[in-house]
Amino acid sequence: MTSEDPRPAGDPALPRVVLADDHPVYRDGLRMMLASTGAVDVVATAADGVEAVVLAGRLRPDVVVMDLQMPKLDGIEATRRIVAANPGTGVLALTMHDDDESVFAAMLAGARGYLVKGADQGEILRAVTAVASGEVIFGPALADRITAYFARLATLRSATEEPEPFPQLTAREREILGLVAAGLSNGRIAERLVLSPKTVRNNVSNVFAKLQVADRAEAIIRARDAGLGH
Q1: Given this model, what pLDDT does residue 12 score?
Q2: Is the model's pLDDT at 147 over the cut of 90?
Q3: What is the Cα–Cα distance from 94 to 115, expressed in whole angstroms?
Q4: Structural domains in the chain?
Q5: In 3D, which of 3, 30, 222, 26 has the Cα closest to residue 123?
Protein backbone atom coordinates (compact mmCIF):
# COMPACT_ATOMS: atom_id res chain seq x y z
CA MET A 1 0.00 0.00 0.00
CA THR A 2 1.28 3.42 -0.95
CA SER A 3 2.22 5.72 1.90
CA GLU A 4 3.00 9.40 1.55
CA ASP A 5 4.35 11.47 4.41
CA PRO A 6 1.42 13.62 5.69
CA ARG A 7 3.77 16.13 7.29
CA PRO A 8 4.61 19.44 5.60
CA ALA A 9 7.35 19.31 3.00
CA GLY A 10 10.78 19.00 4.56
CA ASP A 11 13.89 21.02 4.01
CA PRO A 12 14.06 21.62 0.23
CA ALA A 13 17.84 21.27 0.42
CA LEU A 14 17.54 17.64 1.50
CA PRO A 15 17.39 14.82 -1.07
CA ARG A 16 13.76 13.71 -1.52
CA VAL A 17 13.45 9.94 -1.36
CA VAL A 18 10.80 7.34 -2.20
CA LEU A 19 11.24 3.84 -0.70
CA ALA A 20 9.90 0.83 -2.61
CA ASP A 21 9.88 -2.54 -0.84
CA ASP A 22 7.18 -5.18 -0.46
CA HIS A 23 8.25 -6.17 3.09
CA PRO A 24 6.47 -3.70 5.43
CA VAL A 25 8.73 -4.32 8.41
CA TYR A 26 11.90 -3.64 6.41
CA ARG A 27 10.29 -0.73 4.53
CA ASP A 28 9.10 0.99 7.70
CA GLY A 29 12.38 0.34 9.47
CA LEU A 30 14.32 1.83 6.56
CA ARG A 31 12.01 4.86 6.50
CA MET A 32 12.51 5.51 10.20
CA MET A 33 16.25 4.95 9.98
CA LEU A 34 16.70 7.40 7.10
CA ALA A 35 14.34 9.96 8.65
CA SER A 36 16.24 9.78 11.94
CA THR A 37 19.45 10.95 10.26
CA GLY A 38 17.93 14.30 9.30
CA ALA A 39 19.95 14.08 6.09
CA VAL A 40 17.19 13.01 3.69
CA ASP A 41 13.46 13.65 3.30
CA VAL A 42 11.48 10.40 2.85
CA VAL A 43 8.42 11.67 0.97
CA ALA A 44 6.64 8.36 0.30
CA THR A 45 6.86 4.57 0.41
CA ALA A 46 5.53 1.97 -2.01
CA ALA A 47 4.82 -1.74 -1.57
CA ASP A 48 5.20 -2.78 -5.22
CA GLY A 49 6.76 -1.72 -8.49
CA VAL A 50 3.61 -0.18 -9.95
CA GLU A 51 3.21 2.13 -6.94
CA ALA A 52 6.89 3.04 -7.17
CA VAL A 53 6.49 4.14 -10.79
CA VAL A 54 3.33 6.14 -10.00
CA LEU A 55 4.92 7.87 -7.02
CA ALA A 56 8.11 8.67 -8.92
CA GLY A 57 6.06 10.26 -11.70
CA ARG A 58 3.94 12.29 -9.30
CA LEU A 59 6.51 13.35 -6.73
CA ARG A 60 9.65 13.44 -8.88
CA PRO A 61 11.98 12.51 -5.99
CA ASP A 62 15.73 12.77 -6.21
CA VAL A 63 16.12 9.07 -5.38
CA VAL A 64 13.98 5.93 -5.43
CA VAL A 65 15.40 3.21 -3.19
CA MET A 66 14.23 0.09 -5.03
CA ASP A 67 13.88 -3.54 -4.01
CA LEU A 68 14.21 -5.80 -7.05
CA GLN A 69 11.79 -8.59 -6.13
CA MET A 70 8.33 -7.04 -5.77
CA PRO A 71 4.77 -7.95 -6.79
CA LYS A 72 2.84 -6.48 -9.74
CA LEU A 73 6.02 -5.10 -11.33
CA ASP A 74 9.54 -6.17 -10.48
CA GLY A 75 12.17 -3.64 -9.50
CA ILE A 76 14.14 -3.99 -12.73
CA GLU A 77 11.20 -3.02 -14.94
CA ALA A 78 10.11 -0.36 -12.45
CA THR A 79 13.62 1.11 -12.59
CA ARG A 80 13.55 1.13 -16.38
CA ARG A 81 10.23 2.97 -16.47
CA ILE A 82 11.19 5.50 -13.80
CA VAL A 83 14.50 6.38 -15.44
CA ALA A 84 12.86 6.68 -18.88
CA ALA A 85 10.07 8.95 -17.62
CA ASN A 86 12.05 10.92 -15.03
CA PRO A 87 15.73 11.27 -16.01
CA GLY A 88 16.34 13.50 -12.97
CA THR A 89 15.42 10.71 -10.56
CA GLY A 90 18.18 8.30 -9.58
CA VAL A 91 17.41 4.71 -8.62
CA LEU A 92 19.35 2.93 -5.88
CA ALA A 93 18.77 -0.83 -5.86
CA LEU A 94 18.68 -2.22 -2.32
CA THR A 95 18.04 -5.94 -2.42
CA MET A 96 18.82 -9.35 -0.98
CA HIS A 97 20.23 -10.49 -4.32
CA ASP A 98 23.90 -9.96 -5.16
CA ASP A 99 24.25 -12.36 -8.11
CA ASP A 100 25.83 -11.00 -11.28
CA GLU A 101 22.58 -11.34 -13.26
CA SER A 102 20.66 -9.10 -10.85
CA VAL A 103 23.49 -6.55 -10.55
CA PHE A 104 23.95 -6.10 -14.28
CA ALA A 105 20.21 -6.20 -15.02
CA ALA A 106 19.77 -3.29 -12.60
CA MET A 107 22.67 -1.41 -14.19
CA LEU A 108 21.29 -1.93 -17.69
CA ALA A 109 17.86 -0.75 -16.52
CA GLY A 110 19.48 2.51 -15.41
CA ALA A 111 20.11 2.10 -11.67
CA ARG A 112 22.83 4.43 -10.43
CA GLY A 113 23.64 2.36 -7.37
CA TYR A 114 23.35 -1.13 -5.95
CA LEU A 115 23.55 -2.21 -2.33
CA VAL A 116 22.77 -5.53 -0.66
CA LYS A 117 20.39 -5.56 2.29
CA GLY A 118 22.48 -5.85 5.40
CA ALA A 119 24.40 -2.68 4.53
CA ASP A 120 24.60 -0.49 7.61
CA GLN A 121 22.97 2.90 8.10
CA GLY A 122 26.10 4.79 7.07
CA GLU A 123 26.48 2.86 3.81
CA ILE A 124 22.84 3.31 2.85
CA LEU A 125 22.85 7.02 3.67
CA ARG A 126 26.09 7.58 1.72
CA ALA A 127 24.64 5.71 -1.25
CA VAL A 128 21.37 7.69 -1.20
CA THR A 129 23.13 11.06 -1.02
CA ALA A 130 25.64 10.03 -3.70
CA VAL A 131 22.90 8.94 -6.12
CA ALA A 132 20.97 12.13 -5.35
CA SER A 133 24.00 14.16 -6.41
CA GLY A 134 24.31 12.27 -9.69
CA GLU A 135 27.05 9.82 -8.75
CA VAL A 136 27.10 6.09 -9.48
CA ILE A 137 27.83 3.95 -6.43
CA PHE A 138 28.08 0.27 -5.59
CA GLY A 139 29.04 -1.56 -2.42
CA PRO A 140 32.76 -2.41 -2.15
CA ALA A 141 32.31 -6.14 -2.89
CA LEU A 142 30.07 -5.40 -5.87
CA ALA A 143 32.45 -2.75 -7.18
CA ASP A 144 35.26 -5.32 -7.24
CA ARG A 145 33.05 -7.77 -9.13
CA ILE A 146 31.95 -5.13 -11.63
CA THR A 147 35.58 -4.19 -12.27
CA ALA A 148 36.47 -7.86 -12.73
CA TYR A 149 33.51 -8.37 -15.05
CA PHE A 150 34.50 -5.55 -17.39
CA ALA A 151 38.14 -6.67 -17.25
CA ARG A 152 37.01 -10.11 -18.44
CA LEU A 153 34.98 -8.50 -21.23
CA ALA A 154 37.99 -6.47 -22.35
CA THR A 155 40.16 -9.60 -22.35
CA LEU A 156 37.62 -11.54 -24.39
CA ARG A 157 37.23 -8.65 -26.83
CA SER A 158 40.97 -8.29 -27.37
CA ALA A 159 41.30 -12.07 -27.82
CA THR A 160 38.66 -12.09 -30.57
CA GLU A 161 39.73 -8.92 -32.36
CA GLU A 162 41.84 -9.19 -35.48
CA PRO A 163 45.39 -7.93 -34.82
CA GLU A 164 46.49 -4.88 -36.77
CA PRO A 165 48.37 -5.86 -39.94
CA PHE A 166 52.05 -4.96 -40.14
CA PRO A 167 52.64 -4.16 -36.45
CA GLN A 168 56.12 -2.91 -37.35
CA LEU A 169 54.52 0.14 -39.02
CA THR A 170 53.43 3.27 -37.20
CA ALA A 171 49.77 4.25 -37.38
CA ARG A 172 50.61 6.94 -39.94
CA GLU A 173 52.66 4.54 -42.05
CA ARG A 174 49.83 1.99 -41.99
CA GLU A 175 47.37 4.71 -43.04
CA ILE A 176 49.61 5.73 -45.95
CA LEU A 177 50.11 2.10 -46.98
CA GLY A 178 46.33 1.70 -47.10
CA LEU A 179 46.05 4.68 -49.44
CA VAL A 180 48.90 3.34 -51.58
CA ALA A 181 47.04 0.02 -51.79
CA ALA A 182 43.91 1.93 -52.82
CA GLY A 183 45.82 3.22 -55.82
CA LEU A 184 46.52 6.80 -54.75
CA SER A 185 49.66 8.53 -55.87
CA ASN A 186 51.97 10.26 -53.40
CA GLY A 187 50.56 13.61 -54.45
CA ARG A 188 46.98 12.49 -53.86
CA ILE A 189 47.93 11.03 -50.49
CA ALA A 190 49.55 14.33 -49.51
CA GLU A 191 46.34 16.17 -50.41
CA ARG A 192 44.13 13.66 -48.60
CA LEU A 193 46.13 13.73 -45.36
CA VAL A 194 47.14 17.39 -45.60
CA LEU A 195 50.84 16.50 -45.53
CA SER A 196 53.76 17.78 -47.53
CA PRO A 197 54.80 15.61 -50.52
CA LYS A 198 58.21 15.15 -48.87
CA THR A 199 56.62 13.77 -45.70
CA VAL A 200 54.59 11.30 -47.74
CA ARG A 201 57.67 10.21 -49.74
CA ASN A 202 59.60 9.64 -46.51
CA ASN A 203 56.77 7.58 -45.04
CA VAL A 204 56.42 5.52 -48.20
CA SER A 205 60.18 4.83 -48.18
CA ASN A 206 59.97 3.76 -44.53
CA VAL A 207 57.09 1.43 -45.37
CA PHE A 208 59.03 -0.20 -48.22
CA ALA A 209 62.02 -0.68 -45.94
CA LYS A 210 60.04 -2.14 -43.05
CA LEU A 211 58.07 -4.48 -45.32
CA GLN A 212 61.25 -5.36 -47.24
CA VAL A 213 59.56 -4.85 -50.61
CA ALA A 214 61.32 -3.73 -53.75
CA ASP A 215 58.72 -1.37 -55.19
CA ARG A 216 55.25 0.09 -55.01
CA ALA A 217 53.61 -2.83 -56.84
CA GLU A 218 54.96 -5.35 -54.34
CA ALA A 219 53.85 -3.13 -51.43
CA ILE A 220 50.34 -2.94 -52.90
CA ILE A 221 50.14 -6.75 -53.20
CA ARG A 222 51.28 -7.21 -49.60
CA ALA A 223 48.86 -4.57 -48.34
CA ARG A 224 45.85 -5.94 -50.20
CA ASP A 225 46.61 -9.48 -49.05
CA ALA A 226 46.40 -8.09 -45.51
CA GLY A 227 43.04 -6.44 -46.18
CA LEU A 228 44.19 -2.85 -46.74
CA GLY A 229 43.14 -0.66 -49.62
CA HIS A 230 39.75 -2.23 -50.33
Answers
A1: 66
A2: no
A3: 5
A4: 3-139 (3.40.50.2300), 171-225 (1.10.10.10)
A5: 30
